[in-house]
Amino acid sequence: MSRPRRDRTPIYRDWTLLQLAALSLALDQLTKFVVRQTLEWHHSWPVYGFFRFTHVQNTGSAFGLFQGNNLPLLIVSLVGVAVLAYIYKTQERPGILMRVSIALMLGGALGNLVDRIWQGHVTDFIDIGPWPVFNLADSSIVVGLVILAWVLVVNRDPSSRVEPVRASAYAACPICDGAMITLPNGARCADCGVRERIVARQKQDLPD
User: Fold this and answer.
1) Which of 127, 138, 157, 191 is catalytic?
2) DSSP percent split of the chain into helix, strand, coil, nearest 5
């Protein structure tokens, strides 16, 4: 008898997503700290060139937009984090691309949110040609949005589409009760990743 399928994993228990978000947040905060410690405000290194590091204090949104609106943008950042959690919750089985996109956007949003709370502005430092100065958090958010658009619009994330396994195989993971994804020689849990080799079991269960 197959075991009942458990409810979807909440975002606060998705350790892969949380670790990637934490890595994105840590890299963002580390690079901003190094810039604040080594480069004076409004100074660039090198002084000339297409690609430079320029210390900028941004009271607006990403890429210098909406300057002087730190408090409203702080509220918007909090709402954005809640929206990301809601998007994750609405997915039956978030695939790897969906989880990566949410992790990048979550880490980026939290990175700029920390700046707004503790400094009253966001530290930007990546200066490329005529493009507005930005930081790693902005990059994470943009890359995450692109991946999310790809998943939702193009819908080519194969890991987000869980195929039902055959009746003779496990209907749920024997470890965590998660849904099993069919593989050529067995199945893999969509949640914890445990692999079950069920070829031999299937042969035994087939009628003569």
Assistant:
1) 138
2) 50, 15, 35
Question: Given 124, 127, 157, 191, which residue is catalytic?
Answer: 124
Residues 6+ apart with CB under 8 A from 107: 20, 21, 22, 23, 24, 25, 28, 137, 140
**Which uninterrupted H or E stretch holds 76?**
helix 70-90
State pLDDT tens for residues 21-38: 999 999 999 999 999 999
Please confirm, yes or no, whether 115 is among the known catalytic residues. Answer: no
Question: Residue 24 and residue 31: Cα distance in Å, rounded?
Answer: 11
Is 124 an annotated catalytic residue?
A: yes
Q: What is the pLDDT of residues 42-92, one digit of tens each?
A: 899 988 889 999 999 887 666 555 565 677 778 888 898 899 989 888 887
